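Predict the 3D structure for this chain.
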Amino acid sequence: LVGLAVCCLFVTLAFLINPVPTGKFIAGGDFHQIFNLTDNLYRYLFTWSHGHGQGSYNSLWVAFPYYFFIYLGEVLGLQPNQVASAIFFLFLSLSYFSFNLALRLLAPSINVATRQAGGVLYAVNNITLGIFGYSWGYTHHFIIYVFFPLLMALPLRLLIDRDAPARLAVLTGLVFIFSMPAYNNLAWLFT
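Done. Predicted structure below.
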């Protein structure tokens, strides 16, 4: 029930308090929100891009799953502003659940209310609001923030608990696979 209330809070933040105006999209610095993926998604499937001159390495191919999700939003008829709000909502929700699960794996004795409060604070703080206060929040670069608690907790749990079930190892592998879109420019995050 608390998880549902938290998701309602995130819906309120993403769609009511911080909506992107209808007919607009996110742009700033050297980035703009990618839209019209129906015409452009095919380009992100390859490691080489012939877009300029003789071509160059396509760093977005690793982020294909992220942009495929945006493409699905377009196929469902969402406008760019609605896709941007959905990204914000999913970022907050997945951060919350990731942190909550990480605490559950590493410190199962922590009571539920504390875990949920920690998840809310991890999801909604100056860092996440700062990320989405600028255009970079609508790219694949910060998706590492969503997966970070699980990327730390799952391998640690496997090291701590020698009798961990095999499904925990499978879950660890899946988290690494699903977090791949964040790995194409990790150096940028640490500068």
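Residues 20 and 82 are 7 Å apart (CA to CA).
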